[in-house]
Amino acid sequence: LLWGDAVPAAQLSQLQQPARCAYLLKQAQSVAAATHGLDAAWQTYRAGLGAENPFFREKLFSEHIGLMLASMTSLGKRMPTAAHVQAAQFAEWRSGSSKAQFMAQLGGVKHAMQGVTQYLHANGAAKLAKAVQLDLTRAEKTCQSLPDNLLKSPAQARSACSQAISQLKKRVEGDVAETLDLTLGFTEGDGD
Predict the structure, then answer these.
(1) Contacts 24+ apart (CB under 8 A), 164-168
(2) Is pTM beyond 0.85 here?
(3) How confident is the model over 20-55, as pLDDT tens digits?
(4) Which of 19, 43, 169, 186 is most buried, with most CB under 10 Å away?
(5) DSSP state of 2
(6) In a 3-state reduction of DSSP, which class is residue 132?
(7) Pick from 136, 82, 92, 89: nearest CA to 111
């Protein structure tokens, strides 16, 4: 709506128009206000989940792993590996924040993975926990080494980042799920 895809430079120059900037500001304020409402509703939902009950904790753990796998799949799709890429192939190409947002999403996976590695340690799978942590560290280091402007990154470097994410996903999807006897995929709680 604000930028369009056909002529980005022309569209971006229109953001200097006060009416467009005011509209964008109002939309951002609306999103910020709605976020607080979503958080309040989430806290109510979370309290009703009974997450401290061991039965529900076990069910939620599979969901937790499933959401991490979905995030890793998304990361893989966001990192084009072809030799020749266009700016529009990177999700946040207009703002120039593609790498920062990619790394933030990977940071979310890292944060969520702490619970998984703790659970592995607690259940006698310290060696697997270490392997998961090593894969995660390798993915983080490989992807962080890309230039801030991902369009300027060589295909080989983007491919290495994508492969590192894939290795982490493979380990979680395979070894972790098997070790913890998790059922991944749709569950009775999905409802959609």
Answers:
(1) 164/135, 164/138, 164/139, 165/72, 165/75, 165/76, 165/79, 165/106, 165/139, 166/72, 166/76, 167/135, 167/138, 167/139, 168/72, 168/109, 168/132, 168/135, 168/136, 168/138, 168/139
(2) no
(3) 777 878 888 888 888 877 777 777 766 666 556 666
(4) 169
(5) -
(6) helix
(7) 136
